[in-house]
Amino acid sequence: MKVIILSGLAPSTFFAHVSLATALRDAGHQVMVTAADDDVIPVIAAAGLPALPVMEPGLTRHQMVADAGLGGVPEDAVDREYMAGRWFALIETKPLDALLAFAESWHPDVVIGGMLAYSAPLLAARLGVPYVRQGWDIHPTKLFDGGAAHQLREELAELGFDGLPEPDLMIDITPPSLRAPDAKPAQAMRWIPGNAQCRMEPWMYTKGADARIGVTIGTSVADYDQYDFVQGIVENVAAADAEVAVAVPAAATPVLRERLAEDIHVGWAPLDVLTPTCDVLVHQSGGSTMMTALSRGVPQILIPDSGQFRQTEMARSLVEAGAALTLSPEQATTELIAKSCQELLSDPSYAAAAAGLAEEIAGLPLPSEVVRRIEWLVRAA
C-alpha cells in the first residue's frame, strides 16, 4: 500500500502525523509525507520520514494570501477563524497540481490529510482513492471548514460536491471526556508524541529538583519582546524553588543562554522527551504541545492568544477538566505566571485531573490498530 500524507504548513501540524506514519511504515507500507512550506521539510526528515516538497520555490504563504485579496483580519475571533479557513484552503490547495503530478508517477492508494490540509479531499477525489482525515488536536474545525468550503466552492463544484466531502475515515485523538456531545462518529487513536530528535543531553530526560517547570513558546521566540517575556517567566518561576527547563528553537538558544542564569536549562529539546520530566508545562496553547502534555499527565499553564478562537476554546476545555489554568496575554505577567505555577504544584487535584486524561489517551487504539482499519478501507475501495 502506498500512502501520501499531507502534513500541513508547520512543524507542529506535522508532529501529529509522526506516530501513524511510522506505524504504516512499520507495517510494510510505503509512505510519503508532503509539506506546503519548505521550512517543514527538514523537520519531516529529522523524524525519520520521507519528505516531499510540493510548494513552488520562492512562494510564501504571506504572498499567496496577499495576492488573493482576502482582506484584513476580522476583529471578532469567530469571524477570524472562518477567515482563517479561507486562508488555509487557499494556501493548502496551491500545490495541488504538483501533488497530482507526483501522484501520476507514484500512484498512492490512499490520501491522509490533517484537519486543515484542504488539498487532501480534492486530491483523493481526483485520484479516486480513499480520503482519511486525521485530527491534530482537540478543537473541532467547523468554522475553519465553513471558510474553506466557501473559498473552494468552484473547485468543489467541478468535482460534483456542494461542500467539503466527508472523509472515508475520520481519525480523532481527543480524549473521550473532552469530545463535544455533537461530535461525529470517528475512529479513535491514541496520541503518541512525535518530534524531530537531536543529540540527547541529561537535562532533557532527567530532573534534579523535587519540582520542574517546563517553559516553551514554540517557534515564536523571534523578537526582543518575546525574549524579554521568556526571560521574565524563567526568573520569576525560578524564584519559586523549582527547577526550570526552557525548550526553544536552536536559533533562540544563544540569546537566551546569555540572558538566563547558568543553572537554567535552555535549548532545543524534543517535547516528547522533556515533558515527562516536568511537573508543570507553561506554553501558548499550541495543539501539539497541549496533547503532548496531556498524554504525559502534566498540568499546564496556558496563555492563548485572545484573538485565536481555537486556542481559547482548547484552553477552556482543559480548565473545565481541572488539568490547567489559563491566562490571557494581558493577564500573563511573569509574576502571575509564577504564582499560577505554584498553585498547580501545591494543589494535587490538577495533577490528578491531568493523570486521568492521560489514562483516557493511553486507553485509545494504538496507531498500529488504526493501520489495520486503513488497510481494510483500501481493500474495500
Explained architecture:
By secondary structure, this protein is α/β, with parallel strands linked by helices. The chain folds into two domains: 2-191 and 364-380, 3-Layer(aba) Sandwich (Rossmann fold), CATH 3.40.50; 202-362, Glycogen Phosphorylase B (Rossmann fold), CATH 3.40.50.2000. Helices cover 46% and strands 14% of the residues. Strands 3-2-1-4-5-6-7 form a seven-stranded parallel sheet. The longest helix is centred in the first third of the chain and has 17 residues, at 77-93. It is globular, with a radius of gyration of 21 Å.
Number of domains: 2
Beta-strand residue fraction: 5-15%
Low-confidence stretches: none
- Mean pLDDT, all residues: 89
Query: How many β-strand stretches?
Result: 13
Number of helical segments?
18
Radius of gyration: 21 Å
Output the CATH topology of the largest domain.
Answer: Rossmann fold
**In what order do the strands lie side by side in the largest sheet?**
3-2-1-4-5-6-7
